[in-house]
Amino acid sequence: MSTTNSRLPSPVNDTAAINDERWASMCRSSIGVINVAALAAGVVLILDTQLAGRAWLAVLVFAFGPGTGLVHLFRNIDVTLQWALIPALSLACSLLTAQILLTTDSLGGAHGAIVLTSITAIGVLMRVIGYLRRRFVT
Amino acid sequence: MVNAAGRFRSVRASKAALVATVVGAALSVWSVGDLNAGRSGPHGIIDVLPITFFAGLGVVLVAFTTTLRRQTLPHPVLAFQLITIISLLYGLTSYAEDIARLPTTWVHAGLIEYIQRTGAVLPDYDARFAWPAFFAGGALLNDLAGTDDSGTFLSWAPLVLNLTYSVPVWTIARGTGASARRAWLATCLFFLLNWVAQDYYSPQGVNFLFATAILAVLIRAFTTKSEVIPAWIARPVGRVLASRFSRRARLVRRTNLGPVAQSEMPVSGRQRVLLLSAVALLFAASVVSHQLTPFLVLITVIGLVVLDRVSTRLLPVLMLLGVLIWISYAASSYWAGQLDSLFADVGKIDSVVNQNVNNRVAGNPDHKPVIYARLALTATLWLTAGVGLLRLALRGKLDVISIVGFVAPFTVLVGQAYGGEALLRVYLFALPFAATLAAAALAPGDGSWGKRTTALVTVVLLALMPAFFLTRYGNEAFESFVSDELATVDELSRIAPPGSSLFVFNTNVPWRKERIEDYTFRPLFEDTIPANEIAVISDALQPAGDVGSFLLVTTAQERFAEIKQGQDRGWVDSTITKLLATNRYRVVHRSSDGLIIVPAEPA
Q1: Quick one: which of B148, B195, B393, B531 could link to B398 by a disulfide (CB 3.0–4.6 Å)?
Q2: What gap in Å lies between CA B229 and CA B580, rounded to an integer?
Q3: How far is B145 from chain A (nearest CA, A)?
Q4: What is the pLDDT of residues B549-565, one digit of tens each?
Q5: What is the pLDDT of residue B543?
Q6: Cβ–Cβ of B2/A14 closer than 8 Å?
Q7: pLDDT value at B230 more than 90
Q8: 3-class DSSP assignment, residue B594
Q9: Is the Cβ–Cβ distance between B115 and B121 less than 8 Å?
């Protein structure tokens, strides 16, 4: 994310750059945390566990899960653009999944939870693969 | 190097801003603990909101502008403050009201309930079933949540949706060349000016997110370093206007009506492919879930491509193809046989404006300030955006993206079948760009603000605070419901056999939320109330064989009749009394906020 102004004196730009990098790092970390939380919530929904806050777990999977999984594919772009895409991609995946399940007469929570959780898992899987490659290949 | 004293001052300022935000928010939340929106008057919720609520929100807004004034912007603090502002503006009714507001949101719950129960749609029942993805998604969400009641989601949808809009709106502002400071201000203005309330549990609420995300991607990652005016436009124009062209070119050079370097973001070839796939996914979801949004996105994208500001030239063609395929394949059951009504408004801009403006200025004189405030706020925003456009142009900072984004939505007014709703959609879709331009009118520079700019921004934000509650929640007296009204609707569902006709005075009822195929739903006086209302009711409420007719009267309907339809206070009570005096009807259910009447003869 670039928020510095090249016309300002350099001490200000130093502070701004440090500030921006911290902010971008925070945003990236939050995406990872939400991705893992959504994956865990998706597993709970697949197992059909009855919990008091199940409605909000469903919202987490539905509105944030697939997006946090998919943005990992373009993790090098501006982190605010990633955040702009997360809920939009999640809801798009959820609506298209529902539409396909509706068209194929198989609309139901079990199928939906499996599809959405699988897309959410892309983020975690790619992180694990990235870690293993860094650890053992390079 | 940054010295330690400066860093200490910065941390101290951030802490002070956070404390002020938390204290202000706590004061606002505490003051609406026992708010009764049901007591809202003709000016809406502003009639019952305590002054302490505004004081708390005012503190948060002042803290926000103070933070924005700092030389180095603390983005986490600003993000926290913006989330707090959005929560106070849009979470108020979710927190303080018994059940979800707006009758249409309950209709959507009914469409979702049907799909969840049957796993199919009713093609001829409602046009919305021709774009069913949102409702299928709602059914899926209910299934995931293990419930068949959308109530919780209906209540909290406005807050959740507005929180999701914040980042795309910020990104769009940055994409038009605004500095981070101006982008924060534009985003705050967006939320203080979004009075049109299209962000409820609805296809358009979700589709606005898709639209802003698509535009955010295109104008952040696919902008071109094009010429000021594309050559294919400039050359012929130049030939025709040979003498004037040089003057125009000088003006254009001076105002720099071209790309602003700040908006460009480097992306690799692989990222371009992935981002375009994301855009395709978002647009596909939009095409299958809403009638109007794909066209609004398409028009804006065409504008950006024609003016050479977005490099994906094939994209509008593919988008148009997607829309046509869906309309020809899945939505044909909707438009076949309705072509006359669909094209009735095409080209009739005066009629559309009349439906959108003149027809709304009606009803109780006490309610008219709300309508005038909406018109004034809209006009002021568009005028301020024009000033911002001019100020940016004169500073050589105007990007044509802002003009396209602001103007393109208006073109749907020419050819649409949305009647009175169209101008609301136009306002909403132009709002991210209008707010960005308005922010430029207030603070056109990129650097930190001086005292005058800070004072001006603070005054504007504080003035917009009551204006927001007056315009957005001005209909709260009849658009909000209490749980007793919902209980009356549930009782009606319990006692009315399938095939019954359910009548209401007007549609300000939380009804049609379940078993929609079992009943015929009929409002008696949706537009105006005739002088012979008893005769109209008597004609409608006829016993019909094994099934019956039911008249459902609730408090919100009564308020609508008084505030919007200009009836005297107590009109509903006197009408019910006259109706019962005929001895042809009897009351089968009565509670504090609801009444069910049936014909006295055995069905």
Answers
A1: B393
A2: 72
A3: 4
A4: 999 999 999 999 999 88
A5: 67
A6: yes
A7: no
A8: strand
A9: yes
Share of chain B above pLDDT 70, in %: 85
Range of the domain at B488: 483-599
CB contact under 8 A, B76 and A87: no
Q: Do A78 and B212 touch (CB under 8 A)?
A: no
Establish if A108 touches chain B: CB-CB under 8 angstroms: yes
Is residue B341 assigned to a domain? no
Q: Name the minimum distance, in Å, from the CA of B80 to any CA of chain A.
A: 12
Residue B529 has pLDDT above 90, yes or no: no
Alpha carbons B176 and B401: distance in angstroms, whole number: 6
Pairs of CB atoms within 8 A across A/B? 185
**Entry pTM:** 0.90
pLDDT confidence of residue B548: 85
Render pLDDT for B7-40 as a digit per residue (tens, 0 to 9). 777 888 889 999 999 999 999 999 998 888 778 8
Structural domain total, chain B: 1
Q: Which residues of B touch A92 (CB under 8 A)?
A: 210, 281-282, 284-286
Task: Decide if B286 is inside a domain.
Answer: no
Res B193 pLDDT > 90: yes
Burial of B147 (0-12, 13-18, 19+ CB in 10 A): middle
What is the mean predicted confidence (pLDDT) over A29-57? 92
SS3 B596: strand
Residue A100, judged by CB atoms within 10 A of its CB (0-12, 13-18, 19+), counts as: middle
Whether B536 and B530 have beta carbons less than 8 Å apart is answered as yes
Q: Are A55 and B145 an interchain contact pair (Cβ–Cβ within 8 Å)?
A: yes
A126/B contact by beta carbon, under 8 A: no
B533 located within any domain: yes
Q: How far is CA B199 from CA A63, A83, B44, in A?
A: 15, 19, 18
ipTM given for this complex: 0.89
The whole-number pLDDT of residue B416 equals 60
Nearest CA in chain B to A112: B140
Q: Which two tokens stand for residue B296?
A: 């609004």
CA distance A19 to A35: 24
